[in-house]
């Protein structure tokens, strides 16, 4: 048993180490941090007495994921429940944000309503199964793409933890991950940086059962295991004693015409601007981290780009990633000699291994696979890129205004094989748009046509869901688990 630490609750002084840590190191020009930009939105943000931010006002520029913070679950029924009265009216509006930004994923953050709530749902296979079934039902109902697990914290005696929590959390994550893989959902785990709490997360065993870790880096140093709260009076807008959100800070700076000083050593309680965000970005790149996590979106002036720490070129690259993600969610590759499903569009034919589904076997000489996209998708103008000639390797990739909808080592054109000797080619579409959503149909139709059109949209949505295995395979094959730091 480790001794209790000081109030800072960092690493105990008498805990021995095995020597210097081998930290990962990457070039300062690396792009791994561009893979994910995750923002959280708290459900009470629209009810503040001033500087309220409605969901529809959010600046989504630079985001790949947005998390709904948070849902609780009942420790007896294991059904998800709202954290506050305002949350119920927000859920459908939240997932509708995807209409504004193709490729954006909407996730739900799940926390325990009571102490020991997570201990209860994780301690038996039956409880885990019941909880997961409720999760999937909730996500299907509202159209979420993934879930962020926020267990604060296993085993911790000040949180009502139990000794078996550490092992049970691995089992819970395993069961969630496996169930979500079948449904096409993502799963992330939020971690504390404070050793006092982190010691009870079995990271080695958890790693295979999550798509990434979100790291609460406000706990990275001993002195900041307590979030920087001065315990002064309550500000007018955020209504939390001792805390000013970023928007309130900039309002004060502008109102009082204050002169700003950048302290590179950060010796004082501080806030972020473009300079410090760039410093944080450089650190993330140097440590090969997989993205950025922002707590919280509604604490920022919505006229200011969230991606202020990204260059215009990086923002353009990130936007292309979103479009690619949208394409891969609605397109799929058939087995050899299978046709596209009824109503789906056959975009191309191939013989070899699809790059995103590389475990599929190769076709025989006279067989082909069909690359299919869901009915309602706008393909635009498409062509294969990267084939350099017979007997040569391929160099895939699309132009800046194109969406990469699939890759392959072969394609069939006019009954002739074009096969790569190494590498892959890319199927690139300019003007690609995913199918119209059920919600979009609902807004655009009237009266008697509504029921018929909605029924058709539901049928279409079921077809798209059935094809979500493609996105799951992509995530498993191409996105190794990364640690994403907290920015806030």
TrEMBL record:
CDD domains listed in its UniProt record: GH18_chitinase-like
Under Enzyme Commission nomenclature, its number is 3.2.1.14
Keyword field: Carbohydrate metabolism, Chitin degradation, Glycosidase, Hydrolase, Polysaccharide degradation
GH18 domain: from which residue to which, for each copy?
Answer: 35-317
Carries keyword Methyltransferase?
Answer: no
**GO biological process: what's one of them?**
polysaccharide catabolic process
Q: Which reaction does this enzyme catalyse, per its entry?
A: Random endo-hydrolysis of N-acetyl-beta-D-glucosaminide (1->4)-beta-linkages in chitin and chitodextrins
What InterPro entries does the entry give?
A: Chitinase_II/V-like_cat, GH, Glyco_hydro18_cat, Glyco_hydro_18_chit_AS, Glycosyl_Hydrlase_18
Which SMART domains does the entry mention? Glyco_18
**Which domain of life does the protein's organism represent?**
Eukaryota
Q: What is the name of this protein?
A: chitinase
Q: Give the species this sequence originates from.
A: Cochliobolus sativus (strain ND90Pr / ATCC 201652)
Q: What is the lineage of its organism?
A: Eukaryota, Fungi, Dikarya, Ascomycota, Pezizomycotina
């Amino acid at each position: 048993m480790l001794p209790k630490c000081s109030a800072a609750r960092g690493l105990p002084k008498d805990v021995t180490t095995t020597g210097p840590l081998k930290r990962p190191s990457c070039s300062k020009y690396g792009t791994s941090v561009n893979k994910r930009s995750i923002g959280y939105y708290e459900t009470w943000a629209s009810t503040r007495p001033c500087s309220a931010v409605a969901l529809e006002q959010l600046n989504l520029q630079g985001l790949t994921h947005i998390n709904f913070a948070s849902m609780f679950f009942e420790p007896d029924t294991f059904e998800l429940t709202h954290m506050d009265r305002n949350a119920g009216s927000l859920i459908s509006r939240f997932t509708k944000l995807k209409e504004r930004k193709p490729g954006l994923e909407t996730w739900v953050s799940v926390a325990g309503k009571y102490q020991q709530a997570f201990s209860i749902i994780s301690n038996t296979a039956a409880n885990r199964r019941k909880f997961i079934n409720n999760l999937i039902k909730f996500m299907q109902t509202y159209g979420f793409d993934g879930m962020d697990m926020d267990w604060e914290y296993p085993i911790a005696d000040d949180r009502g933890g139990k000794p078996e929590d550490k092992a049970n959390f691995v089992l819970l994550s395993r069961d969630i991950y496996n169930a979500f893989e079948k449904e096409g959902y993502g799963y992330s785990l939020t971690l504390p940086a404070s050793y006092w709490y982190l010691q009870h997360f079995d990271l080695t065993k958890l790693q295979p059962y999550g798509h990434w870790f979100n790291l609460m880096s406000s706990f990275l140093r001993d002195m900041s295991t307590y979030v920087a709260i001065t315990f002064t009076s309550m500000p007018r807008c955020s209504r939390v004693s001792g805390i000013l959100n970023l928007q309130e800070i900039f309002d004060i700076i502008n109102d009082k015409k204050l002169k700003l000083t950048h302290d590179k050593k950060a010796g004082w309680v501080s806030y972020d601007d473009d300079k410090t965000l760039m410093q944080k970005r450089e650190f993330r790149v140097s440590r090969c981290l997989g993205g950025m996590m922002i707590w919280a979106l509604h604490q920022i002036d919505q006229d200011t780009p969230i991606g202020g720490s990204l260059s215009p070129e990086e923002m353009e690259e990130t936007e292309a990633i979103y479009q690619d993600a949208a394409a891969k969610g609605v397109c799929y590759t058939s087995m050899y000699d299978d046709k596209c499903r009824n109503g789906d569009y056959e975009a191309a034919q191939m013989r070899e291994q699809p790059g995103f589904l590389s475990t599929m076997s190769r076709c025989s000489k006279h067989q082909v696979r069909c690359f299919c996209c869901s009915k309602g998708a706008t393909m635009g103008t498409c062509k294969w890129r990267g084939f350099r000639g017979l007997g040569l390797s391929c160099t895939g990739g699309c132009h800046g205004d194109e969406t990469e909808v699939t890759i392959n080592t072969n394609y069939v054109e006019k009954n002739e094989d074009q096969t790569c000797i190494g590498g892959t080619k890319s199927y690139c579409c300019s003007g690609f748009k995913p199918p119209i959503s059920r919600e979009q149909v609902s807004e655009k139709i009237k009266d008697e046509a509504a029921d018929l059109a909605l029924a058709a949209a539901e049928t279409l949505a079921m077809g798209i869901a059935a094809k979500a295995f493609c996105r799951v395979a992509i995530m498993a094959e191409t996105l190794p688990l990364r640690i994403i730091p907290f920015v806030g």
